[in-house]
Amino acid sequence: MSILKKIGIFLVLILLISQFFAPEKNEGNIDSVSTFIAETNPPEEVMKILQTSCYDCHSSKTTYPWYNNITPINYWLAHHVKEGKQHLNFSKWNEYSIKKKAHKIDELYEEVEEGEMPLKSYTWTHSEANLTAQQINAVVNWGEKVQADYLQQINLK
Asked: What are the distances in angstroms from CA 98 to CA 77, 102, 116?
């Protein structure tokens, strides 16, 4: 048996065995975003955008696609979710200071306005997360208002 064939068999075996291992899933409760919703009061259009384009990576509840059952894809997705939650986690909104909330909202609408969010790798498989110019404007307008409210609270202290 040639060395290439042995390497190929070894790699297939490793791939098969790895299917029995998976990272922990982000399967918390979507109700954990209730503080964020109550404080920021997003209009219905923005609420839908947040649900379809943001919550999977930026909350404690991810709706996983079928291909999340394939290793190593599941590890790649878990890394993206973990990284997304490190930058912004709507489920931990109540733990942020007013100053941090103002900053996070600023980042949120700037990233959306600049086309950085949602990630292209996410919208490839979640076409409903692609945002139109009108949706981007809705997020930016809402975000600016929410940020102004938080900044006003900071200035009143």
From this structure: 31, 6, 24
Q: How far is it, in rounded angstroms, from Cα 100 to Cα 95?
A: 10
Residue 18 has a pLDDT of 64
Alpha-carbon torsion, ordered 82, 88, 57, 115, to 10 deg: -120
| Rounded distance between C-alpha atoms, residue 19 and residue 14, angstroms | 9
pTM for this structure?
Answer: 0.83
Domain boundaries, the chain: 25-156
Q: Which 8-state DSSP code applies to residue 27?
A: B
Span 45-88, pLDDT tens digits: 999 999 999 999 999 999 888 888 888 888 988 999 999 999 99
Cβ distance 106 to 143 under 8 Å? yes
- Residues facing residue 27 across a β-bridge: 61
CA 71 to chain centre: 20
Neighbours of 134 (CB within 10 A): 8
Helices (H), the chain: 3-18, 34-40, 44-53, 55-58, 73-87, 98-113, 120-123, 133-156
- How far the first Cα of the chain sits from its last, in Å, is 76
